[in-house]
Write a structure and sequence with these properties.
This protein has a domain of 37 residues. The protein is 48% helix and 0% strand. The chain is built from three helices and no strands.
């Protein structure tokens, strides 16, 4: 008998594709920032700039490019 999977228990049920290595690294940096208590946008952006993960286009994180990326990845 096949095992029934509860779709509401699948943390990746909304994924359309597997994340890239860069996206996995970014997720880790965001988790680390939250774990360090950085919960507002300015603190999160500062923590990302202190990490080794840079925006795809290079340079530094800003509130604008971080927000735009989150909007893009959430589509």
């Amino acid at each position: 008998m096949p095992t029934y999977r509860f779709p509401h228990l699948d943390p990746h049920q909304a994924r359309r594709r597997a994340p890239t290595d860069w996206e996995v690294s970014l997720a880790g940096a965001i988790e680390q920032a939250f774990g360090q208590g950085h919960h507002d946008l300015p603190a999160l952006v500062a923590a990302l700039n202190a990490s080794r993960v840079r925006p795809r286009e290079g340079g530094s994180w800003t509130e604008a490019n971080f927000t735009a990326l989150m909007r893009e990845l959430g589509e």
